[in-house]
Amino acid sequence: MNRHFFVTACAVSFLISNSAWAQSGLIISHVIGDNGVPVADAVVVAVPDGGPPPLPKSPRTEIMDQVDKEFVPKVEPILVGSLVQFPNKDNVRHQVYSFSLPKTFELPLYAGTPSAPMLFDKPGVVVLGCNIHDWMLGYIYVSESPYFAKTDVGGVAEIHLPVGAYKVRVWHPQLQGTGESTQQSVQVSTSTQLSWNLKLKREIRVRRAPAAGNDSLY
Amino acid sequence: MNITREGALAAVLGGALLGSVVPVLAAEWHFVAEPAAIYDDNVTHGDDSSDIRDDEIAVASVSSGRVFAITGADLITATAELKSAQYLRFGRLGYFDLGPAVSYRHKFGLGVLAPWLALSASVQRRDFYRSRMRDGYAGMVQVAAGRRLSERLDAGLGAAYDWRISKSGTPLDEGLPSTVFNLKGLNLFAKAAYQLTDRVQIDARLNVRRGDVESGTRSEDLAYGGVRAIAPDPAFDDDFYAYRLLGTTVATVAELSWAAGDRSSFSLSGSRDRTFSSGGSSYDGGWLRVSYQYRY
């Protein structure tokens, strides 16, 4: 009994003194646009100065839905090496594709959920479209680091990560310039506040709303 | 209103048939409603200033049907369309349209920048409130091609053949036919749409049409040669005549559209057109249109 208690105490002590939990830090990011309005759907990525940690042995499976002829969520950050399912929850068929270099693909016209999820094994931004519904536009941000988060409607994102030195950057679909231009070097402590003031472009995509038929007189 | 039962029935059955094509394919509903208010500065298509009449028109149209994605590149849309127009001053010109329409679109490749080809055809039974010689059928077949040149700019061009078969008017002594509104013509057009913002879009269209045109006058003694049909036209006045010529119409249309949401928009559009007939007559026309579109 005493021996068992001793081993347990040692193990707990070791975990407390050495585990990531014991050294956990927090980055609270505030992202606003140059008009002062909080920016939702911005992806904040923290990369350890020593490089990203090894990828998990079993890949995560993420979901990019299609609901009411839109991609949901519009922006989905994932870890490189993850699998992504593209379930179609509409009662019409979609043909999802991407021309983006990190993942060029085409899912032929389908309803329901394609049987095999798709592997995203290169970091970068993957822009999604549907060949049937041209207005559909979605983004998968493939992060090389497991420490990332997406801002909410208040422009706030929280990343829980080990304390240490990081390069932290932000990306948004309308960002002018590259995500690298937003990079900050940060020594993350138990709670680190960061803020960005992003310059955003106007979003231009194929309009879903109808236009008047001007083919005939009236 | 003088809607013939067989005409309306044929139009409804045609729309229903088209709407039920290939029921095994996953199809989505198509529904568009569009009320509009229009000012037309030359509803008579008059040449002489004394023959020109203007009017305000209220139009409501509904189009409903199904869209079939045959492949990722091929879409077929089959709809039934209903339209009604009310004229403020010349109430006899009010009409009621009902008929099927079908269109096919093919995209040559993947993505929003892929070029496309579209074929479409429509037929309507058209009944006027109190202008029997205008009653009849109208239709159009069209081929168009285009592509989105950038995120903002979309352009296309095409050709269309339109026709209209109407009843005879009251014959005059000249021995000319009185089927003034039997019209057919070939159209060539180019159009472009530019997105100013994610909500605001401007459209422009240039249309050149060669074919039958109809005009109106108070004078029975027409100075123009080339009149192919003539009949009294009490829709405008007891001493008014409508006549048919061969002519060329050049029309420009511009539209400003604001998306109120994903499914609806408000539009302001205007047109100027000039028609040159082979008999020497020419007339100008134009209209201004305010409309609301809702698409389900």
Any overview of this molecule?
- The complex is a heterodimer of chains A (218) and B (296).
- Chain A has 1 helix and 17 strands.
- Chain A has a 5-stranded mixed sheet with strand order 6-12-11-8-9, with no helix packed on it. Chain A has a 4-stranded antiparallel sheet with strand order 13-2-15-16, with no helix packed on it.
- Chain A has a domain at 54-144: Cupredoxins -  blue copper proteins (Immunoglobulin-like, Sandwich).
- Chain A is mostly beta strands and 218 residues long.
- Chain B has a 12-stranded antiparallel beta barrel.
- Chain B has one domain: Beta Barrel (Porin), CATH 2.40.160.
- Chain B has 296 residues and is mainly beta.
- Chain B has 1 helix and 13 strands.
- In chain B, strand 12 (264-277) and strand 13 (282-295) form a beta hairpin.
- Chains A and B meet through loops of A and strand 1, strand 2, strand 6, strand 8 and strand 9 of B.
Care to give the gist of this entry?
Chain A is built from 1 helix and 17 strands. With about 220 residues, chain A is mostly beta strands. The longest helix of chain A has 17 residues, at about 1-20.
Which helices and strands appear, and what pairs or packs with what?
The complex is a heterodimer of chains A (218) and B (296).
Chain A: H1 2-18, E1 24-33, E2 43-48, E3 61-63, E4 65-67, E5 70-72, E6 75-79, E7 82-85, E8 96-98, E9 105-106, E10 118-120, E11 124-130, E12 137-143, E13 147-150, E14 156-162, E15 164-171, E16 184-188, E17 192-198
Parallel strand pairs in A: 1-17, 3-7, 6-12
Antiparallel strand pairs in A: 1-14, 2-13, 2-15, 4-5, 7-10, 8-9, 8-11, 11-12, 15-16
Chain B: H1 5-19, E1 27-40, E2 55-69, E3 74-87, E4 95-107, E5 116-128, E6 136-148, E7 153-166, E8 183-195, E9 200-217, E10 229-232, E11 241-259, E12 264-277, E13 282-295
Antiparallel strand pairs in B: 1-2, 1-13, 2-3, 3-4, 4-5, 5-6, 6-7, 7-8, 8-9, 9-11, 10-11, 11-12, 12-13
